[in-house]
Design a protein that fits this description.
Elements (H helix, E strand, L loop, with lengths): L2 H8 L11 H5 L5 E6 L8 H8 L1 H15 L3 E7 L7 H10 L2 E5 L2 E2 L4 H9 L14 E5 H10 L7 E8 L5 E6 L4 H7 L8 E5 L6 E3 L12 E6 L3 H7 L2 H11 L5 H4 L2 H5 L5 H4 L10 H5 L10 H6 L6 H15 L20 E2 H8 L19 E5 L9 E2 L6 E2 L4 E4 L9 E2 L4 E6 L2 E6 L1
Helix pairs in contact: 1-7, 4-5, 4-7
Length: 437
């Protein structure tokens, strides 16, 4: 098998976001392979811990991807503040002839558009992807998984940070499908009796109180906060209430736009104008929502910029969904040039952490080598972009760790799914449940 086939066979997906199937990127022709180790979600440190622990695997994965895509240049982006902690990967990069790009400690440095500009000086076209400017971007954990795919080892584990209101914040390598409850217990348990969990981050993650949910291939970590915390109560507000408050209270100050990372790069994203769509639903909704379509949903407008604690990010989400439902194509400005204040309006991560009210939880999450041995795992067949995998095992089947349990549907975008433990299949619908022997 060539590398693309090995990656497809191993079920490698993007580990830093939506879980885009990596074999598709590996089939591209590119000039640059850009490794994303920026990790800008507050309190999460899994990429840093992985970089320190498995530098050779990450670099080898980059080399393999460069060879597959024909890229002559490789760049790894990591925050400058971690320079003293990444000696191993600096050495490995130097030997491989791959560049190290030291990045600023602001949010959202890990956004693809920001990372591509900071690392190469190139601007991705509006509504485009990095490949439009000859670049393939992958998270460092994805690169590590490419290394193992070339050895015939499928994705069965995931690096995650467990942070926030836990006794021992830590980073673990866990079986895919293990429950939130088990990994929180491994971090010493919570420091508060009533809590909620931000899955994959405060800024762009989802909120849940269901501790039976499983860790997936694209989960970056868990941030535990008291249910009384402002971030939990704000996130728990019904969407219709968020829009109603915005409709009545937005005074069009434009701070949400002035701090928008995409706007500062020159993209025509203007959340303050999108907020108008909440009031002009009959006469101007389609017009105002045009300024939402290039939004990356980073959450900075809602959680940092708005002085009235409104929800411009959620208004943009609504605007994008409304236009998609109506089949209205984006018609904005395609000329892109960074704003004159681009460098002056970065939001330092420490400042963001303070505004979020989570400074008391801002601690390292060092890697802990825990041997997880769950009695069962729940493995969703859709934990990636595209179509859900179809189950290829039946209830009662005996499987070993690494066995294929979910296949990509014919002609569809998707990723293979593998058993993360050995045992007996007890359910095989939208998810495969395996109970250990």
């Amino acid at each position: 098998m060539n590398l693309q086939e090995q990656i497809r066979s191993a079920g490698v997906v993007g580990c830093g976001g939506a879980g885009f199937p990596t074999h598709v990127k590996a089939s591209s022709n590119a000039e640059v392979v850009l490794g994303n180790g920026a990790e800008c979600e507050p309190l999460l440190h899994k990429d840093l811990e992985l970089i320190a622990r498995e530098p050779s695997e990450i670099v080898h994965g980059m080399e393999l991807l460069m060879s597959a895509t024909g890229a002559k240049r490789g760049i790894l982006g990591v925050k400058k503040k971690y320079e003293e902690k990444i000696g191993g990967i600096k050495s490995a990069l130097s030997k491989a002839g791959i560049e190290l790009k030291l990045l600023g400690d602001y949010y959202p440095t890990g956004d693809e558009y920001v990372l591509v500009y900071e690392s190469t000086g190139k601007l991705i076209p509006p509504q485009g992807i990095p490949l439009d400017v000859g670049i393939v971007v992958n998270n460092v954990e994805t690169l590590r998984n490419i290394h193992f795919a070339a050895e015939g080892r499928p994705v069965t584990t995931k690096y995650i940070s467990v942070a926030g209101a836990v006794k021992k914040p830590a980073t673990f390598r866990v079986p895919v499908g293990i429950s939130f409850r088990e990994v929180i217990e491994a971090a010493g348990g919570t420091t508060v009796p009533d809590f909620a969990v931000f899955v994959s981050g405060i800024m762009m993650g989802t909120l849940t109180t269901d501790m039976a949910l499983p860790i997936t291939k694209n989960c970056a970590g868990l941030v535990i906060l008291p249910v009384s915390h402002r971030l939990v109560t704000r996130k728990s507000l019904p969407t219709v209430s968020m829009h109603r408050i915005g409709k009545s209270a937005c005074d069009q100050c434009s701070y949400c736009t002035e701090f928008c990372p995409r706007y500062l790069l020159g993209y025509d994203v203007q959340p303050h104008k999108v907020m108008r769509s909440l009031g002009f639903t009959a006469t101007g909704e389609a017009v105002w929502n045009q300024w939402a379509q290039l939004c990356c949903s980073c959450g900075l407008c809602t959680l940092y910029a708005c002085p009235e604690d409104l929800y411009p990010k959620e208004a943009c989400d609504k605007g994008k969904a409304d236009l998609k439902q109506q089949g209205i194509a984006w018609e904005g400005n395609r000329e892109v040039a960074p704003h004159p204040m681009y460098d002056g309006r970065h939001v330092p991560l420490r400042q963001l952490i303070g505004k979020l009210g989570v400074a008391e939880y801002d601690h390292p999450a060092p890697y802990r080598d825990v041997s997880f041995d769950p009695a069962s795992v729940r493995i969703p067949l859709r934990q990636h972009a595209g179509s859900a995998a179809r189950p290829v095992v039946n209830v009662g089947a005996k499987v070993k760790k690494g066995d294929l349990i979910g296949e990509i549907p014919e002609g569809k975008l998707g990723a293979r799914i593998h058993a993360s433990i050995g045992g007996v299949v007890t359910s095989a619908g939208d998810e495969v449940v395996i109970e250990r022997h």
